[in-house]
Amino acid sequence: MEKVRISDLAWPDYARRVKDGAMVLVPVGALEQHGPHMSMNPDVLLPTAIAERVAGNIGGLVAPAIAYGYKSQQQSGGGNHMPGNTSLDGQTMICLVRDVLRELARHGVRQVVLVNGHYENSMFLTEGVDLCLRELRWSGIHDFRCIILSYWDFIDEATIRTIYADDFPGWAVEHGGVLETSLMLHLHPDLVNMDLVQDHPPARFPPYDHFPVRPELTPPSGCLSSARRATAEYGELLLKVAVEGISTALRDAFEPAR
Ligand code: ZN
Ligand code: MN
Description:
Elements: H1 11-19, E1 24-28, H2 42-58, E2 61-62, H3 74-77, H4 90-107, E3 111-116, H5 122-138, E4 145-150, H6 157-164, H7 178-187, H8 232-253
Parallel strand pairs: 1-2, 1-3, 3-4
Helix pairs in contact: 2-7, 2-8, 4-5, 7-8
């Protein structure tokens, strides 16, 4: 099978793949606490694993992940006050995305996919892409295209029902919960310790954000819902559904490599 990681290629091989029209997937994550039971890198490892499988399916390439992200927010990640969270200012994130995309465009890449694994990144990715497209237009490049997606948006209703029955708490409070923990149990079991999962109901927040955060609103575990029901089997199913869904979407949206 052809290699998919850009960083594993010598430059002539990379240049040839780009010339042949390969799309490039860029995983984007964060260094963020995910509870006492799990390492701090699921937001990087999960979109990377998904991107590599998708790239294998459709003949794409995967760039090294952007391993830092925008600040954890209380209602979606527990809050940036938690130990370990190592986050970027919004403007840094925006410029980082813009620069990486512009470099890919300079190499001749014309189809890029940002595979997001950290909820809070979304709008900063949008702005980075927008600034890059504007800059490329000024340089006379009009055929560069980019897709931004978050992998959990490809988990369909049937899969949600299989895993959560009637107890799906919503993706925002899935931070450190069943989705991420199951995927990590399947892909990186050495980075999860289910004995340390703290069982508690999904976090409840008022319908507004308060700054500075009131730490008492975040469950002491740092997770926004319990990972108790996570299993490696669920992880395998979630991975399959996400990879198939994203592969199909990209085949529809982009032209195949030659
Ligand atoms: Zn996460
Ligand atoms: Mn996150």
